[in-house]
Amino acid sequence: MQSEPGKVTTAVKTAIDAGYRHIDCAYCYFNEAEVGTGISAKINDVTVKREDLFVTSKLFQSYHKLEDVEIGLKKSLDLLKLDYLDLFLLHWPLAVKRIGDDEYPRGADGKPMFDDTHFTESWKGMEKLVGKGLVKSIGLSNFTVPQIKEVLALLNKVPIANLQAKRLLAEQCKQPIVIKDPRRCALSGR
Questions:
Q1: Average pLDDT of the chain?
Q2: Would you tell me the crossing angle of helices 119-131 and 145-152 to the nearest 10 degrees?
Q3: Where in the sequence numbering do the catalytic residues fall?
Q4: Is the four-CA dihedral 99, 104, 109, 111 of positive or negative sign?
């Protein structure tokens, strides 16, 4: 369900005025432009500096191919009017096809047209974003423990966050592990 035009901008400005500093977005929420307008307004009126905020967004499923990951990020950065994100999450493990400008095509049966791009390819693209300074941290969202383990095997000294499965992962890992969430809290598991 979409908010009425202007409501998200007002909500973001009100939240920042009230002291909120973590802004959680996603391209597929279709409100990043309004979120960006709210953030820009509060930076411009010097309520906050950019570095005071912790902004999270998520890679849309039609940008999972290695060469498309940066394109997907830059779409979010442009909408949010930002130069970098504090945390960029791989939103879902499944990729969908992108056909021209159609970012979420459906087949004749009305179902999404999935792509065979494996999420480990997407992860490698996300690691490159850290190296370019476009994101400070990367992580996962909506991944299962076995999927998380596949990504952990690829890690290139980059922090990982998985909002849905951090407790389960910590319990199942045999060695100590620290999983950071966007609020910079840590959970240590054995």
A1: 84
A2: 50
A3: 29
A4: positive
